[in-house]
Specification:
- This protein is mainly β.
- It is globular, with a radius of gyration of 23 Å.
- The two termini are about 45 Å apart.
- Strands 25, 27, 28, 30, 35, 36, 37, 38 and 40 form a nine-stranded antiparallel sheet that branches. An eight-stranded antiparallel sheet has the order 5-26-29-39-31-32-33-34, with no helix packed on it.
């Protein structure tokens, strides 16, 4: 069976110190010696896709990632060469795990979809997504195509923390999971129930925490790929079956990564190409942008252990491109223009918590009707988010605000636990464009600041263009700037630069966010007729 499936969660993360030096790896020639071959550059995706699980089905590669409180959850990415990726769909259509994911009396920030697993079962030509929610239970979704529809197959009472799902060569389903104490569960043939679970490994104290399991069967041996957050990767190997016993080996530790200012590549998955070559797709902590995927080739020792191929003692910035068949088509770019045509949102969009689906629509633009009366953007429903493209990119929004009502607030935010926005305030029948900063949360994700207006200008007519530029290069807080236009051609800077923090504890990186909420009464609306993400 062609293999590729592995992931992560929250009790993780000691430090984001980007370290140098020690790594168990084989050295490739320095970059100049590779110049004659077609090459790719890391990160292969400079957007926030963490806790990666990656598989191949035929000539197509798929990857899944964490999304926490964003809805729909667990995006599925697709590629034909492991380098160029598109977002194809989401495995979890709605976060129906409690009212807090609806911003209904409670909030689900930094909960929801953590490290989870994506697998494909050839016997029934079905994709499987498996993940635990809130340390309470595990959910299993299936689909016959990654675009969906995805449907919940079952709920299992055991929370498989940071799970990796294996479809064995005899079609049996196994799950590896746990933090420090690693266990393996066997599921029933239909995948609906657990029939056996057993502890298979206890991490030595000298290693620390291991989690983020990915489960494989390769050449008759069983492997559990584990991360040491946030600076190492280890692997367990069993020659005696999925329940062990397992022996452990270090794959990398404190390895210099491919992004200046970023962290150590870790927590991802192994995948084999059609020609039999192996690759490791990990993520790199790269805040304020988030955790971004990087790719490196892998070889195997004679006794069956994976070895990451290094360049000058580090995870390479460039490598020879994987030798794969010509793609059947070009993937859809993750940047560009969206005019919100059709009847559904394109898969690059995710809501901040579940939306109120009666308060938005697409077709001839995106209409956002006010769904919440609040002065706190973090409580406002129907805030629609888009990942930021690194290292720097700009989002420009064309906004029809003619249907706003007094007290309404609408605009474009740089959204995280410390946020700022440019947008419109309508009060007393007059509309102003404003820049607001000081939207903040504490470490328990409670609001500590609802924002302060620090710049404004009057606008007339019913249309305005809003722009946010984001620098998400890691290693330090970075500037975000805002501007507006009344003709779509000449833009005027509004307000000072906003400092985008690079702390890791919110886990998700900054996003562009479209919002419209009321402070007095519902009934107003705005229409986004064009959204564009561009890079220099």
């Amino acid at each position: 069976m062609d293999l590729s499936w592995p992931h992560q969660p929250l009790t993780r993360r000691r430090t984001l110190a980007a370290a140098t030096g020690l790594a168990a790896g084989a050295l490739l020639p320095p970059a100049p010696a590779l110049a004659t071959a077609a090459q790719y550059t890391n990160p292969v995706i400079w957007q926030d896709f963490a806790d990666i699980d990656v598989i191949r089905v035929g000539d197509t590669y798929y990857a899944s990632a964490s999304t926490m409180h964003y809805s729909p959850g667990a995006p599925v990415l697709r590629s034909y060469d492991l380098v160029n990726w598109e977002i194809a769909g989401h495995s979890v259509p709605v976060l129906d795990f409690g009212a807090k994911y609806d911003l209904n009396g409670a909030r689900g920030y930094v909960r929801g979809i953590w490290a989870s697993s994506l697998a494909y079962r050839p016997s029934n030509r079905t994709f499987y997504w498996l993940g635990q929610i809130d340390f309470a239970r595990t959910y299993l979704y299936t689909a016959t195509a990654v675009e969906g529809p995805w449907n919940r197959l079952t709920t299992i009472s055991t929370p498989y923390y940071d799970a990796g799902l294996l479809v064995d060569t005899d079609d049996t389903l196994y799950v590896a999971y746990g933090n420090t104490t690693i266990s393996v569960a066997q599921l029933s043939p239909d995948g609906r129930n657990q029939v056996r679970a057993q502890e298979v490994f206890r991490t030595p104290a000298g290693v620390g925490t291991l989690e983020g399991a990915r489960f494989y069967k390769i050449n008759g041996q069983y492997y559990i790929f584990l991360t040491r957050p946030a600076n190492g990767q280890y692997v367990l190997k069993s020659s005696s079956g999925p329940f062990g016993p397992y022996t452990m080996r270090q794959v990398l530790l404190d390895l210099r990564g491919p992004i200046p200012g970023g962290g150590v590549p870790h927590q991802g998955g192994l995948v084999r190409t059609q020609s039999g070559a192996w690759y490791y797709m990990a993520f790199v902590d790269a805040y304020p942008g988030g955790r971004v995927p990087a790719l490196a080739p892998v070889t195997w020792t004679a006794d069956g252990w994976p070895v990451v191929q290094l360049v000058d003692g580090a995870w390479g910035t460039t490598y020879p491109s994987p030798a794969v068949p010509a793609p059947p088509r070009q993937v859809t770019p993750m940047t560009g223009v969206d005019t919100f045509d059709g009847t559904t949102l394109k898969p690059g969009w995710e809501w901040n918590h579940n939306p109120d689906n009666t308060k938005w629509s697409v077709g001839n633009g995106l209409t956002l009707r006010t769904a919440t009366v609040t002065h706190d953007l973090y409580w406002a429903r129907n805030t629609l988010t888009h990942r930021i493209q690194g290292p720097t990119s700009t989002a420009t929004v064309q906004l029809d605000h003619s249907a706003m009502r007094d007290g309404d607030r609408a605009g474009l935010a740089l959204l995280r636990d410390s946020s700022a926005w440019i947008g419109l305030k309508r009060d007393g029948g007059a509309t102003r464009v404003v820049m607001v900063t000081g939207l903040t949360m504490d470490s328990n994700w409670n609001t500590t600041g609802t924002g302060t207006e620090i710049a404004s200008a009057p606008v007339s007519g019913g249309r305005v263009w809003l722009r946010a530029n984001a620098d998400i290069r890691p290693g330090a807080p970075r500037p975000g700037t805002f501007s507006y236009s009344t003709d779509g051609i000449t833009f005027t800077r509004l307000g000072p630069a906003f400092s985008m923090g690079n702390d890791w504890r919110f886990f998700m990186g900054y996003r562009f966010a479209l919002f419209n909420h009321a402070t007095q009464a519902l009934g107003g609306a705005v229409r986004v007729t064009r959204f564009e993400v561009s890079t220099p």
